[in-house]
Write a structure and sequence with these properties.
There is one protein chain. This protein has 152 residues and is mostly helical. The protein has one domain. The chain is 64% helix and 7% strand. Strands 1-2 form a two-stranded antiparallel sheet.
Length: 152
């Protein structure tokens, strides 16, 4: 199992963050087009939708597949150390809460993967998760071709 490079983790986080910022910016921009109470309603609705999509990405997808959209793009994922499988929804929610340890340490927890042998943040260490390189999945025809080549 190859642990994911810290640089890939940072890029995946930034990828997810840009998506969230774009949604929040869209909500803000749309709210500026409205006036009075309608502007407030549009803003609140937009922010709730953006937050819900972010929660889906960071907890539901991460829990189910081990990957957010950013992690998928950079071909890394998060798995439980004890099972080698994605952590599940509630474990992902708890991990997001555990990131408070990374923030409370003045951000040192997010730098910790640079020197940690397994590349874990404080939250990863607490939750028993590791970031790993995810292999590329092959289509059936690619697998058949690879098998034919290896049999020669």
């Amino acid at each position: 199992m190859a642990y994911a490079a810290w640089s890939k983790r940072v890029l995946a986080l930034l990828f997810d963050f840009v998506i969230l910022l774009a949604m929040l910016g869209l909500a803000f921009g749309l709210s500026r087009l409205a006036h009075g109470d309608a502007a407030l309603a549009v803003a609140i609705t937009g922010y709730v939708i953006a937050g819900s999509i972010n929660l889906y990405n960071k907890c539901v997808l991460m829990g189910r597949t081990g990957q957010t959209w950013g992690k998928r793009y950079f071909r890394i994922g998060l798995i439980r150390e004890d099972t080698g499988k994605p952590m599940g929804l509630w474990w992902a929610v708890l991990r997001e809460i555990a990131h408070a340890l990374d923030y409370l340490s003045a951000g040192v927890g997010f730098l910790r993967p640079i020197w940690d042998a397994k590349g874990q943040t404080f939250a990863d260490k607490r939750m028993g998760t590791v970031a790993v390189d995810f292999p590329l999945t092959r289509s059936g025809s690619e697998q058949a071709a690879a098998g034919a080549v290896s049999r020669r």
